[in-house]
Structures are given as structure tokens and as C-alpha cells.
Specification:
- Belongs to the AB hydrolase superfamily.
- This is AB hydrolase-1 domain-containing protein.
- It comes from Sporothrix stenoceras.
- By secondary structure, the chain is an alpha+beta fold.
- The protein contains 18 helices and 18 strands.
- Helix 16 (502-510) links the parallel strand 17 (489-495) and strand 18.
- The longest helix has 17 residues, at 23-39.
- The protein starts with 8 loop residues before the first strand and ends with a helix.
């Protein structure tokens, strides 16, 4: 447990990869395993970021982690991370010269326009300049630390704050965890100064801050040694792996799977890379996701929201078509709340909760805006809700085979399906057979038997409690008034045989209510409730002009 009086501080790690270690392997391990594992412990690590030297000196790389309470770093919740390294981590870190330091935070000041890196986009954060100053004291002067501190706080930091581009200055000292009697590290006074990429370092105000009578006195009398390094920020961690750029070039032999099998990275010798992992919502739901496609960090991202009872693999065939025709897209898929076990006590889902789940996923992946969101059935309604609640996170959407309001009849039908599912022996299997026969176009059932059976299996594998409580998002929801104010560009798509044609009529009926009333409706022939699964090529024909 944290101490009663938390001591905030920093984990400060310098790294120098040794000759023979691929930098792609080094970065992929750090970005997709090491860093996110720590950011998944928000009670310990508030932020994590990586820097590259700009002064030509070694070590080349630096990582800093803001720590809520330094005492926690002595406890198993942290120490077990190092004691239980994966084989991949042990292999990689064995080829890296690593030095790890603990520092206690003493003071901090920041500019009025300072924004923490974790709250910035990658483009905004990257390139931030870090100046690191390391001072050891003259031990013959008993008041050396207090005099250095007084100069820092009363003159130097104030003068630095006037340097163009200055963002933040923090003062640290060697952590009490490492000082006698707990350790044998020497006392070091550390200051970290952050500046915008365009700044006044080396200019008149910066030079003036380092050339005053007071500074001359302090350094001549109280300082034994001073070190200075400069770095540029190049990566900010979220709590989820996202680095396809360094994964893609690796050989297939460098594929990785975590011990809990929740995270896996699959290189394709430069052709394709796939990341599979999860994020955790504020109510402790784990949402699995899959990231693939264009490995460029700034690639436009298209996300997919599944129908109830299906998994992210319902999009497999369509995604293959999309990747072939639009290799510029990064592709994000995830399993909707209810696919797997859900946190207890069980709480019925709502459309707003489902939209919030996606926003959490994007936050942890540091995706500031989706190029497009495509959703079907409950995922289609989630897509509309997301566009309403988070318009700044979305450029355009495709909502398929869905409604914008529930009804008494539909609610009654869901309650009947819950009764079927709750049979302890074959409930989900029975529900799967009924559901798929209702979903699919007769042509699909008769001519695509393997695809039909695969969907039955997918539905049957859904978590029973997850289904029971997540389907309630479709009970009584009503977006009819809200969609009148929808400003995000959209497209509606529906299978011609969904509900024997009834859903196409319903979507065409509410289409004029949405936004300016000019959203297009595309009808996919020979398809039922899941046209992107039943006839992926025809679905692509319907959406390619919009995507």
C-alpha cells in the first residue's frame, strides 16, 4: 500500500543498446511491452515518455516515468514486474546497458500554456526539448543544498521561465529509497527543464540565467560537479501497445505473446504487422483489440464496432478487402462490451457506456481522431451515439443495419432471448442457431454453409452474462431528437433482406431526421443483417466511395 504521506517522484532510466541489437527490436519491445505494462498501473505511474539525445553523447535513450508515491516502487506490485520478465524482455534487456535512478520531487513550476504530454496528441508532444542538469554538492559545506535550492527557486528558475518556449521546470533529489541508510547512492540534485521545439535556448535570456553574480557564488562554493544533457521527446506511452512501425520490419521469429496470452505482436517481415492486446475501462472491463494495417504512426485510422454476440473477427473478410484497396489505413477492431465476462456487480449497458468504451480505447492508444468508424447492429447504434457524444474524435461514420431508437416489441424480444440463453446446458448454442437463421439472407444460409456455421460458433461462444446485460443497451434507447443535431458526416448501409426488407424501410424513414437530412442510404443486395460478413465484396462496393 502507498504510504500515508505520498512522496511523488520519478523513475529515470537511461539506455544504450549494444552492438548487434536491432533498433526495431529494441523499440518494439519497449513500446509494446515494457512501457504499456507500467502505464497499466495508474496508481503508480502517471505518465511515461521516451527521449533521444540531441547532444551527441551517450547513453542515447532516456525514459522518464512520473511516480505517484516512491514507496510503492519497493513493493511487489512494482518489483514483480522486474522479477517476472518475459523471455523476450530478458533477451532484449540483456543487450542494453541500463541505468535506473529514483528521484524524489522537490518542486515544480510551469508555464500558463503548459499541457502534460499525456494530454497532448503525439504530434504536439513529440519534439519537446528536455534539458537535464545533474549537480553533486560540495560536502565540506553543510548548507550547500539549501543554498543551491535558494538560488534555484529565487533567481534561476524565475529567469528560465522568461526564456522563449519554456514550459516547465522541476527539481528533484536522489530518492530517500537510495540514500543511506536504505541505500548507498550519493546525493544528487536534478533539475529537468522542458521547452517547446522552437525555443530560446542559447539566446540572450537563457545565457543571462546562467551568468549572474549569485550563480557564480553558488557554483564556486557549494557545487562539486555539474552535468548537463539535452534530449528530444519522441514517444509518449499509453496503457496499450500501438507501435506497428517498429514491429513491421522484424522477422517472423520475433513474434511475441505475453504469459497471460492477452497481448501478442506478430511481425510479417515488413509486409504486415498485427498487434493484439487490451485496455481496461474505469469500471474494470477488459476490452480486447486488434491493430493492423498501415504501420506509420500518423496513419489515418478506421475503427469497427461489432454487432452484439459477435467478435472482432466478424470483419475478417471485409478487412482483407479494405487492406488491399486502402493500404493507407491503420485498422482498429475491438470486442464490444458483453462479448467476454463483465465486471461484477453486473450493470446493464447503455449506448452511452458503449460509446465511452470506445473513447477509452482511443485514449489509451493515443488516437486523437478516427478517420472513420464503421458499426453494425448494436455497433451501428453505438457508432451514432459516439458521433453524437464525441464529434471531435471522429471525421465520418458508417452505421449499418441499425435503428436509432428501441421499441416495446424489440425489448420484449430481447427478454425472450435472454430466457433462451440462460438454459444451463445448450442455451447459448440454441440462441446462436436461432439468431444466425434470423440474421442471414436465405441465399447466405443455402450457399455459404461454412461461413454460416462459423457465425453460429462465434455467437455460441459469447459470454452468457455479458449478453444478458449488454443487450439491455438496446432496450428503450432513443436518439431521435439527438440525431437532429448530428454534425459528423455519415452513411447508412443495410442488407436488402434484413428483416425481410423491413429494416431498409425503417432506416430510410429515419434517415431524414439525422443532421441535415442528407445522409445517403446504401442497400446491399443478397445480404441480411451482417452484409459485411455475408457479402463483403458487395459491402465494399457500397462504402468505398465514402471511405
Amino acid at each position: 500500500m502507498a504510504s500515508s504521506s505520498p512522496t511523488p517522484g520519478m523513475l529515470f532510466v537511461t539506455m544504450e543498446p549494444q552492438e548487434g541489437l536491432s533498433l526495431d527490436q529494441f523499440h518494439e519491445w519497449y513500446n509494446n511491452e515494457h512501457g504499456p505494462t507500467r502505464l497499466r498501473l495508474p496508481a503508480i505511474f502517471e505518465t511515461g515518455q521516451r527521449y533521444h539525445e540531441t547532444d551527441g553523447e551517450k547513453p542515447t535513450f532516456l525514459a522518464t516515468y512520473d511516480v505517484t508515491d516512491m514507496q510503492i516502487l519497493t513493493q511487489p506490485v512494482y518489483t514483480d514486474l522486474r522479477a517476472n520478465r518475459s523471455p523476450r524482455e530478458a533477451e532484449t534487456i540483456g543487450q542494453v546497458a541500463v541505468k535506473r535512478y529514483f528521484f524524489d520531487l522537490q518542486s515544480s513550476r510551469q508555464a500558463d500554456d503548459y499541457v502534460p504530454h499525456i494530454e497532448q496528441s503525439n504530434e504536439e508532444a513529440e519534439g519537446t526539448v528536455l534539458v537535464y542538469v545533474d549537480v553533486t554538492l560540495n560536502e565540506s559545506e553543510a548548507n550547500a543544498e539549501s543554498e543551491l535550492t535558494r538560488w534555484y527557486e529565487e533567481e534561476h528558475f524565475e529567469m528560465l521561465s522568461k526564456v522563449p518556449g519554456w514550459l516547465r521546470t522541476r527539481r528533484f533529489r536522489t530518492s530517500s529509497l537510495d540514500l543511506p541508510p536504505h541505500g548507498n547512492a550519493p546525493l544528487r540534485i536534478i533539475t529537468l527543464h522542458e521547452y517547446k521545439a522552437k525555443n530560446g535556448l542559447g539566446g540572450p535570456r537563457h545565457k543571462a540565467s546562467m551568468d549572474t553574480p549569485w550563480r557564480t557564488e553558488v557554483f564556486s562554493k557549494y557545487v562539486a560537479n555539474k552535468g548537463r544533457r539535452t534530449y528530444s521527446l519522441f514517444y509518449v506511452f499509453g496503457a496499450a501497445p500501438r507501435d506497428l512501425e517498429h514491429l513491421a520490419p522484424l522477422p517472423a521469429s520475433k513474434a511475441f505473446k505475453s504469459s497471460d496470452a492477452k497481448t501478442a505482436s506478430t511481425p510479417r517481415d515488413g509486409k504486415e504487422a498485427v498487434l493484439k492486446s487490451y485496455v481496461t475501462t474505469p469500471d474494470s472491463l477488459e476490452i480486447p483489440y486488434r491493430l493492423e494495417g498501415n504501420p506509420a504512426p500518423g496513419a489515418p485510422t478506421i475503427a469497427f464496432s461489432n454487432s452484439l454476440l459477435t467478435s472482432l473477427h466478424m470483419w475478417d473478410d471485409f478487412v482483407a478487402i479494405l487492406k488491399k484497396n486502402r493500404p493507407d489505413y491503420r485498422i482498429l477492431r475491438y470486442d464490444t462490451r458483453g462479448r467476454h465476462s463483465i465486471p461484477e456487480p453486473f450493470v446493464p449497458a447503455t449506448m452511452e457506456i458503449l460509446a465511452d468504451d470506445l473513447s477509452v480505447l482511443l485514449k489509451h492508444l493515443r488516437i486523437t481522431k478516427l478517420e472513420a468508424l464503421v458499426g453494425v447492429s448494436m455497433g451501428g447504434a453505438t457508432t451514432v451515439q459516439f458521433a453524437l457524444k464525441y464529434p471531435d474524435l471522429l471525421k465520418k461514420f458508417v452505421a449499418c443495419d441499425c435503428n436509432i431508437a428501441g421499441s416495446e416489441a424489440n425489448t420484449a424480444a430481447w427478454k425472450e432471448r435472454i430466457v433462451v440463453a440462460e438454459d444451463p446446458d445448450q442455451g447459448m448454442a440454441t440462441l446462436a442457431g436461432i439468431t444466425v437463421s434470423r440474421w442471414f439472407h436465405p441465399e447466405t444460409v443455402s450457399t455459404k454453409t461454412e461461413a454460416t456455421q462459423n457465425m453460429v460458433n462465434m455467437v455460441a461462444a459469447n459470454n452468457r452474462d455479458g449478453f444478458k446485460y449488454s443487450c439491455q443497451a438496446l432496450w428503450y434507447f432513443n436518439l431521435k431528437e439527438a440525431v437532429k443535431n448530428l454534425e459528423v458526416a455519415g452513411l447508412f448501409v443495410v442488407g436488402d433482406g434484413d428483416g425481410k426488407g423491413a429494416l431498409a424501410k425503417a432506416m430510410d424513414g429515419f434517415r431524414p431526421l439525422v443532421g441535415k437530412g442528407d445522409l445517403e442510404l446504401k442497400i446491399v443486395p443478397q445480404a441480411g443483417h451482417l452484409p459485411m460478413y455475408e457479402t463483403p465484396e458487395a459491402f465494399w462496393e457500397s462504402v468505398q466511395h465514402f471511405l
